[in-house]
Amino acid sequence: MLTGINQWAFPKDMTAEDALKLAARLGYQSFELCVGEDGPVPLGISEAEATALRRVADRFNIVLSTVGTGLGWQYPLTSPSPEVREKGIEVTERALQIAQWLGTHTVLTVPGIVSPEVPYDVALENALACVQKMVPVAENLRVGIGVENVWNKFLLSPVEMRDFIDQCESDYVGAYVDTGNIILYGYPEHYLRILGRRVRAVHAKDFRASAGNFDGFVMLMEGDVNWPAVRTALDEIGFDGALTAEYGPYTHSLEVMLRHVHASLEAIIALAP
């Protein structure tokens, strides 16, 4: 299993190359680049530019395992607007193409949002139709769609997520399990075991349930995630990819945060049964 870090842990004005260099120097083995409409890895990045980033990662001996993106919040696949849903498909397929150029295996995908305007059953119908529509692209590029459990009031149980993935009928649709996001309504070790072979990637986060809101997100091993149980579940399902921490940068000392997170990831991985 690899220690990984998400690009969102680095300042927005830091280049992808500088972030990769710093992560490698601090011992990280894997890095999740993040695609946005602008920024260090924009949607408009060319194949040559993406390939150059891949060579940078190779030079620093760091694996580009996955690609993250928050654009699914901006263009939800569950939107009542066909135009917004189509835009969501477009940006996800573009992220899949960028991921293929980078040599990564999975793109983080927010499956949609349930809201007062979008009832649960409509969200499920729209999200499933959109993901199924993207399956041929994912299969052709050989890059997976990693459906993440996020705070979107949608796919709230591992059984429901399992069934959603299975209805897509493709090995290139799987789960992107976020340990911290689950704590308010479940247990990450249950998600991992129930989803099993469908787990394509894992975000390592921690959460203190008593907070009940975004203030509950705390540093690794400081919250309510049962890390020994999570580590055992990862071993049971045969997951040997990157354990990717997803945190924002410290205000005053980036390296302190990165060192802290890396040490925690190493400790979690060392919990192997």
Structural class: alpha/beta
Largest sheet: 8 strands, parallel, barrel
Major sheet strand order? 1-2-3-4-5-6-7-10
Mean pLDDT, rounded to whole units? 95
Domain tally: 1
Shape: globular
Gap between N and C termini, in Å? 13 Å
Query: Please, how many helices?
Result: 10
- The helix fraction, in percent, is 40-55%
Query: What is the oligomer described by this structure?
Result: single chain
Percentage of residues in DSSP E strands: 15-25%
Stated plainly, the CATH topology is called TIM Barrel
How does this structure look, described?
By secondary structure, the protein is α/β, with parallel strands linked by helices. The chain has a single domain, classed as Alpha-Beta Barrel (TIM Barrel). 43% of the residues lie in helices and 17% in strands. It is built from 10 helices and 10 strands. The chain has helices at 16-25, 47-59, 71-74, 82-102, 120-141, 158-167, 179-182, 188-195, 227-236, 254-269; strands at 2-6, 30-35, 63-69, 106-109, 144-148, 173-178, 199-204, 206-207, 217-218, 242-245. The strands form 2 sheets. The protein has an 8-stranded parallel β-barrel with strand order 1-2-3-4-5-6-7-10, surrounded by 7 helices. A two-stranded antiparallel sheet has the order 8-9. Helix 2 (47-59) links the parallel strand 2 (30-35) and strand 3 (63-69). The longest helix has 22 residues, at 120-141. The two termini are 13 Å apart.
